[in-house]
Amino acid sequence: MQLFRSEEDIDEWSTHTGIPVGARFPPEQLWELATRWYDDRFDLDWGRRTVEERQAILDEVGLIGAFWHLR
Amino acid sequence: MDSRDAAIRLFVYEEALAGAIPTPAQIGVQFSLTPQEAGDALRRLQDDHDALVLLPGSSYIWMAEPFSAVASDYPVLSGNRRWYGNCIWDALAIAALVGDPCRIPAVCPQSGAALDLEVRDGELVRATGVVHFAVPPRRWWESIGFT
């Protein structure tokens, strides 16, 4: 989960490392995910969210498609 | 999760936010446990609850997501305070949890270009670059270090 300067840099990094390109999207969308995903970490009764709850968060922030399916 | 392990988990996060993820010995002092007992609690939090990630082969915390106990390429700066995220996602999450204005001086892993992000008043006010997730979420926890 890294931040690159451009899509071209991701392509070059993928070629250099041999790691296939996965999903790319703007940092603004990651900000939405970060604020939503971690909003419960300071709850005393924290528990890991269910697959359905995690999928709902991904959907809510617009990360949809086969790459983002948890099952 | 029993109430003491829940309290230990929250203590870890409070300490991380205050500036440093605690060691098993420091947790033991806080909860009147031996370092071994504190380490056992941390292992339960990792193995039974996916609440933490320990450094391999030790009882020391590596990740209390989004916080990293070791330096990474994703520092989060606010005034004279500094935290490390495990990745760009976690760095943004730390900035959200801190609440105060934060800067994330990231570096493009391919070009080496500086990529500064800023968070202020609960908003991402300066953003640049493109996020890349190499691993799909159904496989994030197979090798969390790589992810």
Helix content of chain B: 25-40%
The general outline of chain A is elongated
- In DSSP terms (H or I, runs of 4 or more residues), the helix count of chain B works out at 4
Q: Based on CA inertia axes, which overall geometry of chain B fits?
A: globular
Secondary-structure element series of chain B: HHHEEEEEHEEEE
Number of helices of chain A: 3
For the report, how would you describe the main beta sheet of chain A? none
Topology as H/E string of chain A? EHEHH
Strand content of chain B: 25-35%
Question: How widely separated are the two ends of chain B?
Answer: 26 Å
| Stretches with pLDDT under 50, minimum 5 residues of chain A | none
Residue-averaged pLDDT of chain A:
95
Could you characterize what this model shows?
- Chain A has 71 residues and is mostly helical.
- Chain A is built from three helices and two strands.
- Chain A has helices at residues 7-17, 27-37, 51-60, and strands at 2-4, 23-25.
- By secondary structure, chain B is α+β, with helices and mostly antiparallel strands.
- Chain B has helices at 3-18, 24-31, 35-47, 88-98, and strands at 53-54, 61-64, 67-68, 74-78, 81-85, 102-107, 114-120, 123-126, 130-133.
- In chain B, the strands form three sheets. In chain B, strands 1-2-3 form a three-stranded antiparallel β-sheet. In chain B, strands 6-7-8 form a three-stranded antiparallel β-sheet, covered by helices on one side. In chain B, strands 4-5 form a two-stranded antiparallel sheet.
- In chain B, helix 2 packs across helix 3.
- The chains are: A mainly alpha (71), B alpha+beta (147).
- Strand 2 (23-25) of chain A pairs antiparallel with strand 9 (130-133) of chain B.
